């Protein structure tokens, strides 16, 4: 690869390392609550190696190298540099890489799925590795895979058949999309959920690897009594238990310990189901844990752990390990409580009729949390789970806003693409605007909507003889979900990004309602685009437009593939703003290379042009989802997220020149001493990040 092309894959220099501040909230817990939080944190972080193995084959040995090198020098990197004969700049380049690696739990960006490589030269990295036999052996194992290499496709996660990297299909470079889909459809027909599985192609068929502590659970412990089948083409499909067995055993044991400190029977039942699920590999027991989780309203310690989000599986159905443990911020939660109370009045404001909405809005728990532990490849600002449609439609869901993630700031952060005249308003209101956006996105965005389906043979959750009329075609709907189909199985690879886009558009539409802004203490509910509530709304629209521009960093020109679900969604919303007309939004520049690119967005036209454009787009997103109209949805979404030559050749290069490093968070550890739990925090530096992982011996 040429030097210019390699630049976009170099590790951040320096990465933005910030602390995940938690101490006051943790110290406010009782001793019993601290023990509960402690074991849940151990269970979460015990999945660290699962995440590493889900990213790339070389991620785990690189992790082991970082830990071993730190132990070798006892964290004294100045002495290590002298011993190895490397410069202080090279030492810093290594530390920058290590911090970014640990912040993403792998050598591919959690937000973008593209590889990042060290800025330290291979000879200098080998010099560091040569300080001990153990570190040199580890280095020899990954030295050919830590840098860019010559195969551009391997710099991105994706389908193996496209030349990309995916360890959801381990040791199976020849497995095709069609084979993955075929196995998935077969397992769906058997009723086996896919989130905790990986697929391995064998000489005579396929092994379905299931995460479980037990390598041979009994038929009664499994979700399916059968474990082997022969397909019509003669190939065998075999269930193989015990994927990540060592890790799952530690995880299950900590859930069993956490159960001893549960605050109530609901939490105890939830812990029991978690323990069974991670021991046997049963996702039906995991779903039961989620049903108990929804019933655990307003706990002092909130947590959800498992194979949750499916963004990184190229097929969009297998989950990445994730676990969070957090304390409730009661003050910030009050506004979210008011939003929940207002939800039944706000949903009718959205651009579709009641036929496309749940009969009853299932009022969720919506809390602002301060995160103690977030184990996984990256930390979001808000979460809406569980992702199982049958639970969401019938029992409900929970929304959480992660307060200390939202408020974490790096000093002197650059803000490209915002005009000088808008900077003051943008800087003052972007954080509260984002909190409003997260609330609307998670609660009403992911929480609204009905899937029209044939629930079982001949039974429907809508009037099949007099079907609802689509507001798009003005004709009765003709598509719907068939028995056994889910939203994820029908929309497949586009599902994650499409749903994020729908939720973002709900937030953009409803943030224009000044009664919503009043809930968050901005304005008195009166429409006033020039008042403080108008300032917040303006900052929200500017933020979304800016995110849409910055999103181009996460689109790869070689594969012509989006690497991040949220960013693909935000680019489509930017396009929607621009399509509303130059009188509303335009990208402006005077330089040919767009080095002075800024966004002009007219505050006075948000309500007259911006909101209607968003609502028109949102209506299509929603109706296509509700009616399982994948063909129409795919065409619309691919068209609006297509990166045309202007964006590819001019805007994207300007974005890459001004990109800002994504934050990586240094998290505290909990330590049990004499039956009590203490919190140990670390410096917000690369060394502090490494130290925090080194001290998790159970990983």
Provide structural commentary.
With 699 residues, the chain is an alpha+beta fold. 45% of the residues lie in helices and 13% in strands. The chain has 26 helices and 19 strands. The chain has a 5-stranded mixed sheet with strand order 6-7-8-10-9. The longest helix is centred in the middle third of the chain and has 26 residues, at 420-445. The two termini are 36 Å apart. Its EC number is 3.4.14.4.
Query: Radius of gyration from the CA trace?
Result: 25 Å
Number of strands: 19
Largest sheet: 5 strands, mixed
Inertia-based shape: globular
- How many distinct helices? 26
- Catalogue the unreliable spans: none
Spatial gap, N to C terminus: 36 Å
Strand content: 5-15%
- What percent of residues adopt helix (DSSP H or I)? 40-55%
Would you tell me the structural class of the helices and strands?
alpha+beta
Organism: Polyplosphaeria fusca
InterPro entries: Dipeptidyl-peptase3, Peptidase_M49
Enzyme class: hydrolase
Keywords: Aminopeptidase, Cytoplasm, Hydrolase, Metal-binding, Metalloprotease, Protease, Zinc
């Amino acid at each position: 690869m040429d030097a210019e092309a390699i630049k976009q894959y170099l590790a951040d220099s320096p990465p933005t390392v910030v602390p995940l501040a938690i101490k006051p909230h943790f110290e406010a817990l009782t001793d019993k609550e601290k023990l509960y939080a402690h074991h849940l944190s151990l269970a979460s972080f015990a999945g660290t190696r699962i995440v590493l193995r889900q990213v790339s084959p070389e991620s785990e040995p690189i992790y082991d190298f970082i830990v071993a090198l730190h132990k070798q020098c006892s964290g004294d990197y100045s002495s290590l540099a002298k011993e190895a004969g490397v410069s202080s700049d090279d030492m810093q380049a290594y530390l920058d890489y290590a911090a970014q690696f640990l912040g993403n739990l792998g050598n591919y960006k959690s937000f973008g799925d593209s590889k990042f490589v060290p800025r330290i030269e291979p000879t200098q990295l080998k010099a560091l590795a040569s300080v001990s036999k153990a570190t040199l052996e580890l280095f020899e194992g990954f030295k050919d895979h830590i840098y860019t290499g010559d195969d551009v496709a391997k710099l991105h996660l994706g389908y193996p058949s496209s030349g990309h990297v995916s360890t959801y299909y381990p040791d199976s470079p020849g497995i095709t999309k069609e084979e993955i889909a075929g196995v998935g459809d077969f397992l769906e027909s058997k009723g086996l959920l896919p989130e905790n599985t990986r697929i391995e192609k064998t000489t005579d068929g396929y092994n379905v690897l299931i995460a479980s502590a037990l390598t041979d659970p009994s038929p009664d412990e499994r979700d399916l009594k059968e474990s082997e089948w022969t397909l019509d083409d003669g190939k065998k499909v075999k269930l193989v238990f015990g994927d990540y067995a060592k890790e799952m055993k530690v995880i299950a044991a900590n859930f069993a310990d956490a159960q001893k400190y549960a605050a109530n029977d609901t939490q105890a039942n939830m812990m029991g189901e978690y323990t069974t699920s991670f021991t046997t590999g049963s996702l039906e027991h995991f779903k039961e844990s989620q049903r108990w989780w929804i019933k655990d309203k307003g706990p002092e310690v909130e947590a959800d752990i498992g194979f949750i989000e499916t963004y990184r599986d190229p097929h969009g159905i297998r989950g990445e390990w994730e676990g969070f443990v957090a304390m409730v911020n009661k003050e910030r939660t009050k506004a979210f409580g008011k939003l929940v109370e207002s939800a039944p009045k706000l949903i009718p404001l959205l651009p579709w009729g009641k036929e496309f909405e749940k009969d009853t809005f299932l009022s969720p728990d919506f809390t602002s949390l301060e995160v103690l532990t977030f184990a996984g490849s990256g930390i979001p600002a808000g979460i809406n789970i569980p992702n199982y449609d049958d639970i969401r439609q019938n029992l409900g869901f929970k929304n959480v806003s992660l307060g200390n993630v939202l408020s974490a700031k790096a000093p002197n952060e650059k803000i490209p693409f915002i005009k000088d005249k808008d900077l003051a308003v943008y800087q003052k209101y972007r954080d509260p605007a984002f909190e409003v956006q997260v609330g609307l996105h998670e609660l009403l965005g992911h929480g609204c909507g009905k899937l029209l389906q044939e629930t079982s043979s001949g039974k429907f959750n809508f009037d099949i003889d007099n079907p609802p009329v689509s507001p798009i075609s003005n004709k009765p709907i003709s598509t719907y979900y068939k028995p056994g189909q889910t939203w994820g199985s029908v929309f497949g690879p586009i599902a994650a990004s499409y749903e994020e886009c729908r939720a973002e558009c709900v937030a953009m539409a409803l943030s224009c309602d000044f009664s919503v802004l009043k809930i968050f203490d901005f304005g008195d509910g009166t429409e006033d685009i020039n008042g403080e509530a108008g300032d917040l709304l303006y900052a929200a629209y500017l933020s979304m437009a800016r995110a849409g521009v910055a999103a181009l960093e996460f689109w790869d020109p070689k594969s012509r593939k989006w690497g991040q679900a949220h960013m693909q969604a935000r680019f489509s919303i930017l396009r929607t703003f621009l399509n509303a007309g130059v009188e509303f939004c335009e990208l402006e520049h005077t330089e040919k290379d767009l080095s002075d690119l800024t966004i002009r967005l007219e505050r006075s036209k948000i309500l007259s042009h911006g909101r209607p454009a968003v609502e028109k787009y949102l209506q299509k997103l929603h109706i296509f989802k509700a009616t399982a109209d994948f063909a129409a949805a795919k065409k619309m979404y691919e068209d609006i997220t297509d990166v045309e030559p202007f964006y590819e050749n001019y805007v994207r290069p300007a974005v890459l020149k001004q990109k800002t490093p994504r934050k990586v968070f240094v998290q505290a550890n909990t330590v049990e001493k004499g039956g009590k739990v203490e919190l140990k925090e670390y410096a917000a530096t690369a060394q502090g990040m490494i130290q925090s992982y080194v001290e998790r011996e159970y990983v």
